[in-house]
């Protein structure tokens, strides 16, 4: 059971840049998200070809988590994520594949991503996590809900650290703000401090 | 492609295999793998290209969409999708487009 929790580390992915704890770790002038994520992921040299088969939302989530969790312990790590568009980006692609009767070729590889929380599953698979996870769909990051649920996970002993945050993507617009809540650190895990991450 | 010993048949089969490799790379998002990296007899699953069960379903869709072949029995896939050689042979025999 964790008595006092802290926001140990933060990773922000937006505007073609990956920033970890306010330090730019990767940036690229590539026009599309597709080119950006490939280069940003390869920067860490992970041997994980499955990354390139994921839908865009999962790529964003896994990419941000890769930078956030670099060098960190994965023990009892739970996930609490949220976004605004759910899996709409992939839903639209799936819909296009089944729109016309004569050209009805739904892609199994696309269809399996037509749920928002699949991106949490991809993070779990990538890091071998078999822990609690939750995904909320909300207009903005549900700070109070995420804070309360994270505190519950830590204080009930269901997790000893929690990867939390926002992974929003639709078409070419994307933003990930992930933070690691653990017993380590100096910035207290409070609603106010979470709010500051999104300022 | 009715005469297996005919030189034209062999050329057409070679072209079909190259085309098939390209389509598989594209459809399955096989990053960092080029047509030249895939040998005709390489196993597609397991030790070869390392494809998974979702990839198998994607190959079934590819057969339908590109070659007009509907695999009604998924068990057929095990023998058809062994390698590029076996896929190309099945397509050559059964394609409707």
- The beta-strand count of chain B equals 0
Shape of chain A: globular
The CATH class of chain A: Alpha Beta
| Number of helices, where a helix is a run of at least 4 consecutive DSSP H or I residues of chain B | 4
- Roughly what percent helix of chain A? 25-40%
Distance from first to last alpha carbon of chain A:
31 Å
Rg of Cα set of chain B: 13 Å
What is the architecture of chain A at the second tier of CATH?
3-Layer(aba) Sandwich
Structural descriptors:
heterodimer; A: 199 residues; alpha/beta; 7 helices; 34% helix; 25% strand; B: 97 residues; mainly alpha; Non-ribosomal Peptide Synthetase Peptidyl Carrier Protein, Chain A; 4 helices
Your description of this structure?
Chain A: This is 3-oxoacyl-ACP synthase. Chain A: InterPro entries: Thiolase-like (IPR016039). The complex is a heterodimer of chains A (199) and B (97). In chain A, strands 3-2-1-7-6-4-5 form a seven-stranded mixed beta sheet, sandwiched between helices. Chain A has one domain: 3-Layer(aba) Sandwich (Peroxisomal Thiolase, Chain A, domain 1), CATH 3.40.47.10. In chain A, helix 1 packs parallel to helix 2 and helix 2 crosses helix 5. Chain A contains seven helices and seven strands; from the N terminus they run βββααβαααβαββα. Chain A has 199 residues and is an alpha/beta fold. The mean pLDDT of chain B is 89. In chain B, 54% of the residues lie in helices and 0% in strands. In chain B, helix 1 packs across helix 4. Chain B has a single domain, classed as ACP-like (Non-ribosomal Peptide Synthetase Peptidyl Carrier Protein, Chain A, Orthogonal Bundle), CATH 1.10.1200.10. Chain B is an all-alpha fold and 97 residues long. Chain B is built from four helices and no strands. Chains A and B meet through loops of A and helix 2 of B.
């Amino acid at each position: 059971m964790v008595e006092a929790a802290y926001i140990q580390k933060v990773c922000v992915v937006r505007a073609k840049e990956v920033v970890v704890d306010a330090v730019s770790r990767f940036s690229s002038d590539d026009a599309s998200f597709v080119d950006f994520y490939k280069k940003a992921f390869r920067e860490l040299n992970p041997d994980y070809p499955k990354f390139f088969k994921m839908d865009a939302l999962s790529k964003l989530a896994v990419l941000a988590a890769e930078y956030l969790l670099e060098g960190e312990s994965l023990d009892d790590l739970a996930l609490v994520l949220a976004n605004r568009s759910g899996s709409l980006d992939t839903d639209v692609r799936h819909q296009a594949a089944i729109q016309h009767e004569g050209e009805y070729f739904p892609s199994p590889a696309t269809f399996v991503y037509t749920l928002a929380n699949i991106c949490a599953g991809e993070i779990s698979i990538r890091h071998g996590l078999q822990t609690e996870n939750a995904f909320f769909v909300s207009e903005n990051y549900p700070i109070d809900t995420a804070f309360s649920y994270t505190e519950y996970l830590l204080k009930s002993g269901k997790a000893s650290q929690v990867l939390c945050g926002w992974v929003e993507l639709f078409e070419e617009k994307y933003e990930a703000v992930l933070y690691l809540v653990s017993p380590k650190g100096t910035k207290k895990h409070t609603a106010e401090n979470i709010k500051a991450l999104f300022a | 492609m009715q005469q297996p010993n005919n030189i034209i048949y062999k050329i057409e089969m070679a072209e079909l295999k190259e085309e098939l490799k390209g389509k598989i790379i594209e459809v399955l998002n096989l990053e960092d793998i080029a047509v030249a990296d895939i040998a005709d007899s390489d196993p597609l699953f397991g030790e070869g290209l390392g494809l998974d069960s979702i990839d198998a379903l994607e190959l079934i869709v590819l057969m339908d969409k590109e070659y007009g072949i509907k695999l009604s029995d998924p068990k057929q896939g095990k023998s058809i999708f062994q390698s590029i050689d076996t896929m190309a042979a099945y397509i050559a025999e059964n394609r409707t487009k």
